[in-house]
Amino acid sequence: MRISTKVLAAGLGAALLLAVATLGEGARGTAQGATPPIALPSHDPCPDGKASKPPPALTLPAIVPPGDPIAIEKTMLDYLATFHYRTLGWCVDKYVRDTGPYIHGFYYGTHPAVRIYYSPEIMDWLRNGRKGEPADGAVMIKEQYSPTPAARYMGLRDDQLKPDDWTVMIRRKSASRDGWFWSEVYVGMNLKNPPDTQYPNAGFGLYCLRCHASAEKLTTFAALNNIKGFPGEPLVFRVDSSWRTPQPGAVVKAVVTQTAPAPDKDPEHEKNRLEQMAVAHVLAGVSSYQTFPPEPLDGNLSNPSPQPPPEFITSTQCLSCHSAASVPSAFGPVMWLTPPPNYTPPPSPLPGANGVNVSEYGEWRWSPMGLAGRDPVFYSQLESELRYITSIPARRILGQRPARTRQTLRTQVVDTCLRCHGVMGKRTNDIEHGPRAHFNVNWVFDGDPASPNFHLGGLARDGISCTVCHHITQTPEEKASLAYVLVHKSTGLFTVGPPDKLNGPFRNDPIP
Protein backbone atom coordinates (compact mmCIF):
# COMPACT_ATOMS: atom_id res chain seq x y z
CA MET A 1 0.00 0.00 0.00
CA ARG A 2 1.17 3.52 -0.59
CA ILE A 3 -0.01 4.47 2.87
CA SER A 4 0.27 1.48 5.16
CA THR A 5 -2.88 0.99 7.24
CA LYS A 6 -3.66 -1.93 9.48
CA VAL A 7 -7.12 -1.45 10.90
CA LEU A 8 -10.16 0.78 11.15
CA ALA A 9 -10.56 2.86 14.28
CA ALA A 10 -13.27 1.92 16.70
CA GLY A 11 -15.07 5.15 17.38
CA LEU A 12 -17.59 7.61 16.05
CA GLY A 13 -15.11 9.55 13.96
CA ALA A 14 -13.77 6.44 12.27
CA ALA A 15 -17.25 5.04 11.81
CA LEU A 16 -18.36 8.19 10.03
CA LEU A 17 -15.21 8.15 7.97
CA LEU A 18 -15.77 4.54 6.96
CA ALA A 19 -19.33 5.32 5.93
CA VAL A 20 -18.12 8.16 3.72
CA ALA A 21 -15.22 6.17 2.30
CA THR A 22 -17.18 3.07 1.42
CA LEU A 23 -19.71 5.17 -0.42
CA GLY A 24 -16.85 6.52 -2.49
CA GLU A 25 -15.83 3.03 -3.49
CA GLY A 26 -19.18 2.13 -4.87
CA ALA A 27 -22.65 3.43 -5.10
CA ARG A 28 -24.88 6.10 -3.78
CA GLY A 29 -27.46 5.47 -1.11
CA THR A 30 -25.89 3.56 1.77
CA ALA A 31 -22.46 2.65 3.06
CA GLN A 32 -23.36 -0.98 2.40
CA GLY A 33 -23.19 -0.45 -1.34
CA ALA A 34 -26.95 -0.67 -1.99
CA THR A 35 -27.85 1.01 -5.26
CA PRO A 36 -31.16 2.46 -6.39
CA PRO A 37 -32.53 0.97 -9.62
CA ILE A 38 -30.73 2.41 -12.63
CA ALA A 39 -32.35 2.34 -16.04
CA LEU A 40 -29.98 0.70 -18.50
CA PRO A 41 -29.15 2.73 -21.62
CA SER A 42 -30.77 1.68 -24.87
CA HIS A 43 -27.30 1.47 -26.40
CA ASP A 44 -25.02 -0.78 -24.36
CA PRO A 45 -21.69 1.09 -23.98
CA CYS A 46 -19.61 -2.09 -23.69
CA PRO A 47 -21.46 -5.11 -25.12
CA ASP A 48 -20.11 -8.52 -24.13
CA GLY A 49 -19.75 -9.53 -27.75
CA LYS A 50 -16.86 -7.08 -28.12
CA ALA A 51 -15.23 -7.70 -24.73
CA SER A 52 -12.55 -10.31 -24.20
CA LYS A 53 -12.49 -12.78 -21.34
CA PRO A 54 -9.84 -12.34 -18.62
CA PRO A 55 -6.37 -13.14 -20.02
CA PRO A 56 -4.17 -15.97 -18.64
CA ALA A 57 -2.18 -13.47 -16.56
CA LEU A 58 -5.35 -12.73 -14.58
CA THR A 59 -6.51 -16.36 -14.36
CA LEU A 60 -5.79 -18.12 -11.08
CA PRO A 61 -4.07 -21.51 -11.09
CA ALA A 62 -5.93 -24.52 -9.73
CA ILE A 63 -4.06 -24.25 -6.42
CA VAL A 64 -3.09 -20.90 -4.91
CA PRO A 65 -0.29 -21.41 -2.36
CA PRO A 66 -0.77 -19.91 1.11
CA GLY A 67 1.30 -17.01 2.32
CA ASP A 68 2.37 -14.57 -0.38
CA PRO A 69 1.83 -16.19 -3.83
CA ILE A 70 4.88 -14.53 -5.36
CA ALA A 71 4.63 -16.18 -8.79
CA ILE A 72 1.03 -15.01 -9.23
CA GLU A 73 1.88 -11.47 -8.15
CA LYS A 74 4.85 -11.27 -10.52
CA THR A 75 2.83 -12.52 -13.50
CA MET A 76 0.03 -10.11 -12.65
CA LEU A 77 2.36 -7.12 -12.25
CA ASP A 78 4.19 -7.82 -15.51
CA TYR A 79 0.86 -7.90 -17.33
CA LEU A 80 -0.74 -4.86 -15.69
CA ALA A 81 2.33 -2.71 -16.27
CA THR A 82 1.78 -3.12 -20.04
CA PHE A 83 -1.79 -1.68 -19.77
CA HIS A 84 -2.93 -4.35 -22.24
CA TYR A 85 -6.11 -4.83 -20.22
CA ARG A 86 -7.27 -1.47 -21.59
CA THR A 87 -7.55 -3.05 -25.05
CA LEU A 88 -9.88 -5.89 -24.00
CA GLY A 89 -13.07 -3.90 -24.53
CA TRP A 90 -14.00 -3.98 -20.85
CA CYS A 91 -16.29 -1.43 -19.26
CA VAL A 92 -14.48 1.24 -17.27
CA ASP A 93 -15.30 4.01 -14.80
CA LYS A 94 -16.32 7.38 -16.20
CA TYR A 95 -13.12 9.01 -14.96
CA VAL A 96 -10.49 8.86 -12.23
CA ARG A 97 -12.44 9.43 -9.03
CA ASP A 98 -11.74 10.03 -5.37
CA THR A 99 -12.45 7.55 -2.59
CA GLY A 100 -12.68 10.17 0.13
CA PRO A 101 -12.33 13.91 0.77
CA TYR A 102 -9.12 15.92 0.47
CA ILE A 103 -9.06 18.62 3.16
CA HIS A 104 -6.22 20.84 4.42
CA GLY A 105 -3.59 18.90 2.56
CA PHE A 106 -4.69 15.46 3.73
CA TYR A 107 -6.47 12.71 1.80
CA TYR A 108 -9.11 10.69 3.65
CA GLY A 109 -9.76 8.04 1.03
CA THR A 110 -9.88 4.30 1.57
CA HIS A 111 -7.71 4.03 -1.55
CA PRO A 112 -5.85 6.64 -3.59
CA ALA A 113 -7.75 8.09 -6.54
CA VAL A 114 -9.04 5.19 -8.63
CA ARG A 115 -10.39 4.06 -11.98
CA ILE A 116 -11.79 0.52 -12.34
CA TYR A 117 -12.07 -1.88 -15.28
CA TYR A 118 -14.76 -4.59 -15.17
CA SER A 119 -14.62 -7.97 -16.94
CA PRO A 120 -17.72 -9.19 -18.86
CA GLU A 121 -18.68 -11.51 -15.99
CA ILE A 122 -18.84 -8.59 -13.57
CA MET A 123 -20.91 -6.56 -16.02
CA ASP A 124 -23.40 -9.41 -16.47
CA TRP A 125 -23.92 -9.41 -12.71
CA LEU A 126 -24.27 -5.63 -12.46
CA ARG A 127 -26.66 -5.40 -15.43
CA ASN A 128 -28.78 -8.08 -13.76
CA GLY A 129 -29.24 -5.91 -10.69
CA ARG A 130 -26.52 -7.66 -8.64
CA LYS A 131 -28.65 -10.80 -8.45
CA GLY A 132 -26.95 -14.15 -8.02
CA GLU A 133 -23.16 -14.17 -8.24
CA PRO A 134 -20.55 -13.36 -10.89
CA ALA A 135 -19.06 -16.39 -12.60
CA ASP A 136 -15.77 -17.74 -11.33
CA GLY A 137 -12.88 -15.97 -13.03
CA ALA A 138 -14.62 -12.57 -12.99
CA VAL A 139 -12.11 -9.74 -12.57
CA MET A 140 -12.06 -6.12 -11.43
CA ILE A 141 -8.87 -4.11 -11.98
CA LYS A 142 -8.56 -0.95 -9.93
CA GLU A 143 -5.99 1.54 -11.16
CA GLN A 144 -4.70 3.60 -8.23
CA TYR A 145 -3.35 7.10 -8.77
CA SER A 146 -0.98 8.94 -6.46
CA PRO A 147 -0.49 11.66 -5.51
CA THR A 148 -4.10 12.52 -4.82
CA PRO A 149 -6.71 13.95 -5.34
CA ALA A 150 -8.38 12.87 -8.60
CA ALA A 151 -8.52 16.49 -9.76
CA ARG A 152 -4.85 16.16 -10.74
CA TYR A 153 -5.85 13.75 -13.52
CA MET A 154 -8.91 15.54 -14.85
CA GLY A 155 -8.90 15.88 -18.65
CA LEU A 156 -5.90 13.60 -19.24
CA ARG A 157 -6.07 11.09 -22.11
CA ASP A 158 -5.65 7.36 -21.55
CA ASP A 159 -2.11 7.47 -22.88
CA GLN A 160 -1.34 10.12 -20.26
CA LEU A 161 -2.83 8.12 -17.38
CA LYS A 162 -0.06 5.78 -16.27
CA PRO A 163 -0.66 4.43 -12.76
CA ASP A 164 1.96 2.18 -11.20
CA ASP A 165 -0.29 0.61 -8.57
CA TRP A 166 -3.23 -1.76 -8.99
CA THR A 167 -5.60 -3.69 -6.75
CA VAL A 168 -7.29 -6.68 -8.35
CA MET A 169 -10.23 -8.86 -7.34
CA ILE A 170 -10.65 -12.28 -8.97
CA ARG A 171 -13.69 -14.43 -8.25
CA ARG A 172 -13.29 -18.00 -6.95
CA LYS A 173 -16.29 -19.03 -4.91
CA SER A 174 -14.84 -22.35 -3.73
CA ALA A 175 -11.69 -20.89 -2.15
CA SER A 176 -12.93 -18.83 0.81
CA ARG A 177 -15.99 -17.60 2.63
CA ASP A 178 -16.16 -14.34 0.68
CA GLY A 179 -15.12 -15.98 -2.61
CA TRP A 180 -12.55 -13.40 -3.80
CA PHE A 181 -8.82 -13.46 -4.43
CA TRP A 182 -7.49 -10.07 -3.31
CA SER A 183 -4.24 -8.54 -4.46
CA GLU A 184 -2.28 -5.33 -4.69
CA VAL A 185 0.75 -5.07 -6.94
CA TYR A 186 2.83 -2.03 -7.76
CA VAL A 187 5.99 -1.17 -9.63
CA GLY A 188 9.01 -1.56 -7.38
CA MET A 189 7.39 -3.89 -4.86
CA ASN A 190 9.70 -6.27 -3.02
CA LEU A 191 8.71 -9.73 -4.22
CA LYS A 192 10.32 -11.99 -1.64
CA ASN A 193 10.24 -15.73 -2.16
CA PRO A 194 9.73 -17.48 0.14
CA PRO A 195 7.96 -14.84 2.23
CA ASP A 196 9.39 -14.26 5.69
CA THR A 197 7.70 -11.48 7.62
CA GLN A 198 5.68 -9.61 5.01
CA TYR A 199 1.93 -9.63 5.48
CA PRO A 200 0.64 -11.05 2.17
CA ASN A 201 -0.17 -8.60 -0.61
CA ALA A 202 -2.26 -11.23 -2.37
CA GLY A 203 -4.40 -14.19 -1.41
CA PHE A 204 -7.76 -15.16 0.06
CA GLY A 205 -9.22 -13.71 3.24
CA LEU A 206 -6.94 -10.66 3.29
CA TYR A 207 -7.21 -7.41 5.25
CA CYS A 208 -9.21 -5.84 2.39
CA LEU A 209 -12.27 -7.37 4.05
CA ARG A 210 -12.06 -4.90 6.95
CA CYS A 211 -13.95 -2.48 4.68
CA HIS A 212 -15.40 -4.73 2.00
CA ALA A 213 -17.21 -6.88 4.57
CA SER A 214 -19.64 -3.97 5.04
CA ALA A 215 -20.85 -4.20 1.42
CA GLU A 216 -24.47 -5.17 0.96
CA LYS A 217 -23.62 -8.10 -1.30
CA LEU A 218 -20.56 -10.14 -2.26
CA THR A 219 -18.14 -7.75 -0.49
CA THR A 220 -17.94 -5.33 -3.41
CA PHE A 221 -19.20 -1.78 -3.86
CA ALA A 222 -19.20 -1.92 -7.68
CA ALA A 223 -22.14 0.01 -9.16
CA LEU A 224 -23.31 0.99 -12.64
CA ASN A 225 -23.48 4.71 -11.84
CA ASN A 226 -19.66 4.73 -11.71
CA ILE A 227 -19.29 3.19 -15.17
CA LYS A 228 -18.94 5.04 -18.46
CA GLY A 229 -22.11 4.99 -20.57
CA PHE A 230 -24.54 4.29 -17.73
CA PRO A 231 -26.80 6.84 -16.01
CA GLY A 232 -25.77 8.60 -12.85
CA GLU A 233 -22.49 9.90 -11.53
CA PRO A 234 -19.97 8.65 -8.97
CA LEU A 235 -20.19 10.10 -5.50
CA VAL A 236 -18.28 13.37 -5.25
CA PHE A 237 -16.30 14.24 -2.12
CA ARG A 238 -15.21 17.61 -0.89
CA VAL A 239 -11.77 18.54 -2.24
CA ASP A 240 -10.36 21.89 -1.22
CA SER A 241 -7.58 23.72 -3.03
CA SER A 242 -4.79 22.76 -0.63
CA TRP A 243 -3.49 20.13 -3.07
CA ARG A 244 -2.50 22.88 -5.51
CA THR A 245 0.33 24.18 -3.32
CA PRO A 246 3.05 22.26 -1.41
CA GLN A 247 2.13 21.63 2.20
CA PRO A 248 4.65 21.74 5.03
CA GLY A 249 5.48 19.06 7.54
CA ALA A 250 3.33 15.97 7.80
CA VAL A 251 1.40 16.69 4.61
CA VAL A 252 4.52 16.52 2.47
CA LYS A 253 5.53 13.39 4.33
CA ALA A 254 2.17 11.79 3.55
CA VAL A 255 2.53 12.49 -0.17
CA VAL A 256 6.05 11.09 -0.19
CA THR A 257 4.75 7.96 1.53
CA GLN A 258 2.17 7.57 -1.18
CA THR A 259 4.67 7.68 -4.02
CA ALA A 260 7.60 5.84 -2.42
CA PRO A 261 8.07 2.06 -2.51
CA ALA A 262 5.84 0.60 0.15
CA PRO A 263 7.35 -0.63 3.40
CA ASP A 264 6.44 -3.99 4.86
CA LYS A 265 2.78 -4.05 5.85
CA ASP A 266 3.68 -5.20 9.33
CA PRO A 267 6.85 -3.49 10.64
CA GLU A 268 6.49 -5.27 13.98
CA HIS A 269 7.04 -8.54 12.15
CA GLU A 270 10.15 -7.07 10.54
CA LYS A 271 11.49 -6.31 14.01
CA ASN A 272 10.89 -9.94 14.90
CA ARG A 273 12.84 -11.06 11.84
CA LEU A 274 15.86 -8.99 12.83
CA GLU A 275 15.78 -10.44 16.32
CA GLN A 276 15.72 -13.94 14.84
CA MET A 277 18.73 -13.06 12.72
CA ALA A 278 20.55 -11.88 15.84
CA VAL A 279 19.81 -15.18 17.56
CA ALA A 280 21.07 -17.07 14.52
CA HIS A 281 24.31 -15.10 14.73
CA VAL A 282 24.75 -16.05 18.39
CA LEU A 283 24.17 -19.70 17.51
CA ALA A 284 26.70 -19.63 14.68
CA GLY A 285 28.70 -22.42 16.33
CA VAL A 286 25.73 -24.80 16.52
CA SER A 287 25.93 -27.55 13.90
CA SER A 288 22.18 -27.57 13.16
CA TYR A 289 18.95 -26.19 14.52
CA GLN A 290 15.30 -26.35 13.54
CA THR A 291 13.34 -23.32 12.35
CA PHE A 292 9.65 -22.56 12.14
CA PRO A 293 7.99 -21.90 8.77
CA PRO A 294 7.44 -18.18 8.05
CA GLU A 295 4.47 -16.69 9.85
CA PRO A 296 2.60 -15.84 6.60
CA LEU A 297 2.21 -19.60 6.09
CA ASP A 298 0.18 -19.99 9.29
CA GLY A 299 -3.08 -18.61 7.89
CA ASN A 300 -6.22 -20.73 7.93
CA LEU A 301 -9.49 -19.38 6.55
CA SER A 302 -13.14 -20.05 7.15
CA ASN A 303 -14.77 -22.62 4.88
CA PRO A 304 -16.43 -21.47 1.65
CA SER A 305 -20.21 -21.21 1.62
CA PRO A 306 -22.39 -23.18 2.08
CA GLN A 307 -20.10 -25.30 4.26
CA PRO A 308 -20.35 -24.64 8.00
CA PRO A 309 -17.51 -22.58 9.47
CA PRO A 310 -14.62 -24.42 11.12
CA GLU A 311 -14.19 -24.37 14.88
CA PHE A 312 -10.88 -22.51 14.59
CA ILE A 313 -9.31 -20.00 12.22
CA THR A 314 -6.02 -18.14 12.65
CA SER A 315 -5.48 -14.62 13.94
CA THR A 316 -4.82 -13.43 10.37
CA GLN A 317 -8.61 -13.31 10.00
CA CYS A 318 -8.94 -11.01 13.03
CA LEU A 319 -5.98 -8.62 12.91
CA SER A 320 -7.25 -6.36 10.12
CA CYS A 321 -9.94 -4.95 12.43
CA HIS A 322 -8.36 -5.62 15.82
CA SER A 323 -4.78 -4.45 15.29
CA ALA A 324 -3.41 -0.91 15.23
CA ALA A 325 -2.60 1.65 12.56
CA SER A 326 0.60 3.55 13.24
CA VAL A 327 0.80 5.57 10.02
CA PRO A 328 -1.28 8.77 9.75
CA SER A 329 -3.98 8.08 7.16
CA ALA A 330 -7.72 7.86 6.74
CA PHE A 331 -7.66 5.11 9.36
CA GLY A 332 -5.07 6.16 11.88
CA PRO A 333 -3.21 6.39 13.99
CA VAL A 334 -5.58 4.27 16.07
CA MET A 335 -4.87 2.02 19.05
CA TRP A 336 -1.30 3.28 18.79
CA LEU A 337 0.49 5.33 21.48
CA THR A 338 2.88 7.75 19.83
CA PRO A 339 5.97 8.87 21.78
CA PRO A 340 6.09 12.37 23.32
CA PRO A 341 7.77 15.22 21.40
CA ASN A 342 10.93 14.96 23.53
CA TYR A 343 11.36 11.25 22.77
CA THR A 344 14.89 10.28 21.72
CA PRO A 345 15.04 7.13 19.58
CA PRO A 346 17.78 4.57 20.26
CA PRO A 347 21.04 4.76 18.26
CA SER A 348 20.00 1.84 16.03
CA PRO A 349 16.20 1.81 15.94
CA LEU A 350 14.44 -1.18 14.45
CA PRO A 351 12.20 -0.68 11.37
CA GLY A 352 8.72 0.65 11.90
CA ALA A 353 7.06 3.63 13.53
CA ASN A 354 8.01 4.66 17.05
CA GLY A 355 5.31 3.92 19.57
CA VAL A 356 3.39 1.15 21.27
CA ASN A 357 0.71 -1.05 19.72
CA VAL A 358 -2.03 -1.20 22.36
CA SER A 359 -4.62 -2.95 20.21
CA GLU A 360 -6.15 -6.30 21.11
CA TYR A 361 -4.05 -8.04 18.49
CA GLY A 362 -0.87 -6.16 19.40
CA GLU A 363 -1.07 -7.03 23.08
CA TRP A 364 -1.97 -10.66 22.34
CA ARG A 365 0.63 -11.25 19.61
CA TRP A 366 3.63 -10.85 21.93
CA SER A 367 2.02 -12.46 24.98
CA PRO A 368 2.72 -16.02 26.19
CA MET A 369 -0.58 -17.00 24.55
CA GLY A 370 0.31 -15.44 21.21
CA LEU A 371 3.75 -17.07 21.22
CA ALA A 372 2.67 -20.41 22.68
CA GLY A 373 2.86 -22.17 19.32
CA ARG A 374 6.23 -20.67 18.35
CA ASP A 375 8.06 -20.79 21.67
CA PRO A 376 11.50 -22.37 21.10
CA VAL A 377 11.95 -22.94 24.84
CA PHE A 378 8.74 -24.97 24.95
CA TYR A 379 9.74 -27.13 21.98
CA SER A 380 13.22 -27.62 23.45
CA GLN A 381 11.68 -28.79 26.71
CA LEU A 382 9.28 -31.04 24.82
CA GLU A 383 12.17 -32.59 22.92
CA SER A 384 14.01 -33.15 26.21
CA GLU A 385 10.98 -34.94 27.64
CA LEU A 386 10.69 -37.18 24.60
CA ARG A 387 14.39 -38.02 24.67
CA TYR A 388 14.13 -38.86 28.35
CA ILE A 389 11.30 -41.31 27.64
CA THR A 390 13.44 -42.96 24.97
CA SER A 391 16.31 -43.32 27.43
CA ILE A 392 14.29 -45.06 30.17
CA PRO A 393 15.76 -48.56 30.68
CA ALA A 394 13.42 -51.39 29.74
CA ARG A 395 13.61 -52.85 33.24
CA ARG A 396 11.98 -49.73 34.64
CA ILE A 397 8.99 -49.94 32.30
CA LEU A 398 6.00 -51.98 33.40
CA GLY A 399 4.57 -54.51 30.97
CA GLN A 400 5.95 -56.92 28.43
CA ARG A 401 6.45 -54.48 25.55
CA PRO A 402 8.72 -51.59 26.61
CA ALA A 403 9.01 -50.18 23.07
CA ARG A 404 5.24 -49.88 22.71
CA THR A 405 4.98 -48.37 26.18
CA ARG A 406 7.62 -45.79 25.30
CA GLN A 407 5.72 -44.80 22.15
CA THR A 408 2.50 -44.52 24.14
CA LEU A 409 4.20 -42.25 26.65
CA ARG A 410 5.67 -40.10 23.89
CA THR A 411 2.26 -39.74 22.25
CA GLN A 412 0.62 -38.85 25.54
CA VAL A 413 3.21 -36.18 26.29
CA VAL A 414 2.79 -34.54 22.87
CA ASP A 415 -1.01 -34.65 23.02
CA THR A 416 -1.06 -33.24 26.56
CA CYS A 417 1.33 -30.36 25.86
CA LEU A 418 -0.25 -29.44 22.53
CA ARG A 419 -3.67 -29.12 24.17
CA CYS A 420 -2.54 -25.59 24.95
CA HIS A 421 0.64 -24.83 23.01
CA GLY A 422 -0.88 -26.06 19.73
CA VAL A 423 -4.51 -26.14 20.74
CA MET A 424 -6.12 -25.24 17.39
CA GLY A 425 -4.05 -27.78 15.46
CA LYS A 426 -4.59 -30.46 18.10
CA ARG A 427 -8.35 -29.96 18.33
CA THR A 428 -8.81 -29.65 14.57
CA ASN A 429 -6.94 -32.94 14.16
CA ASP A 430 -9.34 -34.52 16.66
CA ILE A 431 -12.33 -33.08 14.78
CA GLU A 432 -11.09 -34.35 11.41
CA HIS A 433 -9.77 -37.76 12.49
CA GLY A 434 -11.51 -38.56 15.76
CA PRO A 435 -10.59 -38.17 19.44
CA ARG A 436 -8.15 -41.09 19.29
CA ALA A 437 -6.05 -39.34 16.66
CA HIS A 438 -2.64 -38.16 17.82
CA PHE A 439 -0.95 -34.90 16.92
CA ASN A 440 2.47 -35.18 15.29
CA VAL A 441 4.75 -32.40 16.51
CA ASN A 442 6.66 -32.54 13.21
CA TRP A 443 3.65 -30.90 11.55
CA VAL A 444 4.56 -27.66 13.35
CA PHE A 445 7.87 -27.49 11.45
CA ASP A 446 6.47 -28.57 8.06
CA GLY A 447 6.69 -25.68 5.59
CA ASP A 448 5.44 -27.59 2.53
CA PRO A 449 1.94 -26.36 1.58
CA ALA A 450 1.36 -29.59 -0.34
CA SER A 451 1.59 -31.68 2.84
CA PRO A 452 -1.80 -33.10 3.88
CA ASN A 453 -1.41 -31.87 7.47
CA PHE A 454 0.11 -28.48 6.61
CA HIS A 455 -3.00 -26.65 7.82
CA LEU A 456 -2.77 -28.37 11.22
CA GLY A 457 0.78 -27.10 11.68
CA GLY A 458 -0.29 -23.55 10.86
CA LEU A 459 -3.16 -23.68 13.32
CA ALA A 460 -0.85 -25.02 16.03
CA ARG A 461 1.81 -22.35 15.41
CA ASP A 462 -0.79 -19.61 15.96
CA GLY A 463 -0.82 -20.53 19.63
CA ILE A 464 -3.69 -19.81 22.00
CA SER A 465 -5.34 -17.67 19.37
CA CYS A 466 -8.46 -15.53 19.12
CA THR A 467 -10.95 -18.28 18.28
CA VAL A 468 -9.69 -20.43 21.14
CA CYS A 469 -10.64 -18.19 24.04
CA HIS A 470 -13.62 -16.63 22.27
CA HIS A 471 -15.13 -20.09 21.71
CA ILE A 472 -14.86 -21.12 25.37
CA THR A 473 -18.26 -21.46 27.02
CA GLN A 474 -19.08 -20.25 30.51
CA THR A 475 -18.81 -22.93 33.18
CA PRO A 476 -22.25 -23.83 34.60
CA GLU A 477 -22.62 -22.94 38.26
CA GLU A 478 -23.18 -26.55 39.26
CA LYS A 479 -19.76 -27.42 37.81
CA ALA A 480 -17.85 -24.44 39.15
CA SER A 481 -15.96 -26.45 41.73
CA LEU A 482 -12.23 -26.30 42.29
CA ALA A 483 -11.86 -29.89 41.12
CA TYR A 484 -13.68 -29.15 37.85
CA VAL A 485 -11.57 -26.07 37.21
CA LEU A 486 -8.31 -27.92 37.88
CA VAL A 487 -9.26 -30.78 35.56
CA HIS A 488 -10.73 -28.74 32.71
CA LYS A 489 -9.39 -25.20 32.80
CA SER A 490 -5.68 -25.71 33.44
CA THR A 491 -5.21 -28.78 31.24
CA GLY A 492 -6.57 -27.59 27.91
CA LEU A 493 -9.79 -29.61 28.33
CA PHE A 494 -12.08 -26.58 28.27
CA THR A 495 -15.46 -26.73 26.56
CA VAL A 496 -16.13 -24.76 23.37
CA GLY A 497 -19.36 -23.57 21.83
CA PRO A 498 -20.68 -23.89 18.25
CA PRO A 499 -18.31 -22.94 15.40
CA ASP A 500 -20.55 -20.11 14.17
CA LYS A 501 -20.61 -18.26 17.49
CA LEU A 502 -17.82 -16.25 19.13
CA ASN A 503 -18.17 -15.02 22.70
CA GLY A 504 -17.19 -11.48 23.62
CA PRO A 505 -16.53 -9.83 26.99
CA PHE A 506 -20.03 -8.38 27.29
CA ARG A 507 -23.47 -9.91 27.56
CA ASN A 508 -26.08 -9.54 24.84
CA ASP A 509 -28.66 -8.26 27.31
CA PRO A 510 -30.78 -5.51 25.74
CA ILE A 511 -30.18 -2.00 26.99
CA PRO A 512 -33.21 -0.87 29.06
Characterization of the model:
The protein has 512 residues and is α+β, with helices and mostly antiparallel strands. Helix 9 runs antiparallel to helix 10 (402-421) and helix 11 runs antiparallel to helix 12. The protein starts with 11 loop residues before the first helix and ends in a 24-residue tail after the last helix. Among the domains are: 12-259, no CATH class; 372-469, no CATH class. The chain has a six-stranded antiparallel β-sheet. The protein has a two-stranded antiparallel sheet with strand order 2-3. A two-stranded antiparallel ribbon has the order 9-10. It contains 14 helices and ten strands. The longest helix is centred in the last third of the chain and has 20 residues, at 402-421. Residues 1-37 and 249-274 have low confidence and may be disordered.
Sequence-ordered SSE layout with sheet pairings:
Elements: H1 12-25, H2 70-80, E1 91-92, E2 102-103, E3 106-107, E4 113-118, H3 120-127, E5 139-145, E6 165-171, E7 180-186, E8 202-204, H4 209-212, H5 250-259, H6 267-282, H7 319-322, E9 336-337, E10 356-357, H8 360-365, H9 376-391, H10 402-421, H11 423-433, H12 454-461, H13 466-469, H14 482-488
Antiparallel strand pairs: 1-4, 2-3, 4-5, 5-6, 6-7, 7-8, 9-10
Helix pairs in contact: 9-10, 10-11, 11-12
Q: How confident overall, as mean pLDDT?
A: 82
Tell me the total number of β-strands: 10
Strand fraction: 5-15%
End-to-end CA span: 44 Å
Overall body shape: elongated
What's this entry about, in short?
The chain is an alpha+beta fold and 512 residues long. The chain has helices spanning 12-25, 70-80, 120-127, 209-212, 250-259, 267-282, 319-322, 360-365, 376-391, 402-421, 423-433, 454-461, 466-469, 482-488, and strands spanning 91-92, 102-103, 106-107, 113-118, 139-145, 165-171, 180-186, 202-204, 336-337, 356-357. Among the domains are: 12-259, no CATH class; 372-469, no CATH class.
